[in-house]
Amino acid sequence: MNHSSFWLKSNKKVLCFCLSVASIILMEVVFAHGVAGKDAAYLQQNNGLALSVFTYLGAKHMVTGYDHLLYLCGVIFFLNRLKDVALFVSLFAIGHSITLLWGVLGGVYVNPYIVDAIIGLSVVYKALENLDGLKQILRYPPDPKIAVFCFGLVHGLGLSTKLQDFSLSEDGLIANIIAFNVGVEIGQLIALICALFLINAWRIQGGFYRHSRSFNFVLIFLGLLLAVYQVSAYYLSVGS
Predict the structure, then answer these.
(1) In a domain, 84, yes or no
(2) Domain count of the chain?
(3) Which positions of the chain have pLDDT values less than 70?
(4) What is the DSSP letter of 107?
(5) Is residue 27 part of a domain?
(6) Which domain holds residue 132?
(7) Residue 31: what pLDDT?
(8) Can you give the C-alpha Rg of the chain in angstroms?
(9) Which tens digits make up the pLDDT trace of 107-147?
(10) Is there a contact between 76 and 85 (Cβ–Cβ < 8 Å)?
(11) Contact (CB, 8 A) for 14 and 211
């Protein structure tokens, strides 16, 4: 049996997982970073302060934002100490908050397809970093902390472009957007606690390091899938 056949056989479950998640993304990828349905209708109709609702919508966005979650799972995947997790997640949160608030309140708008494509590539970047693959591509790879902060800026900008598609009321806008951002961070905390629990359970159960490369290859595949979809959507939008 050659090496490729052995790898496929030993990682059959991982590949099945990859294909299952990919199918979900293909069905729902159009909603990446989006706010739709009743949530979108509420944002359009709201006038005045609605801090609790905006906090809830921010948390809901993060918990259901698989592009965010894929990246953050890559960030915390090999972190064993809680203080390291807190540091990296805080850097991401600061970057995310800066561009979310700056984009919406300052009216800074960029093409959402381009931003979401970069977000997909951020997942690929982190997985390559976990695999020590960056050293083969970049002569001097950036400090991981700087990279996490910078990608936090990109992720925040992605959400701000979506919020700008709505005609948000100026009455209480600053407080509402700050509440939305607080909700995003709460949702991120909830998602990370669940992810850390699962990763630590995986470590205890065994096989974590044996399958860690497969997990990060899955991240690369899904990140590329997101990026290709967004680039394709961009060219279709330009051509239409």
Answers:
(1) yes
(2) 1
(3) 1-37, 239-240
(4) T
(5) no
(6) 35-239
(7) 45
(8) 19
(9) 888 888 999 999 999 999 999 999 988 888 888 888 999 99
(10) yes
(11) yes
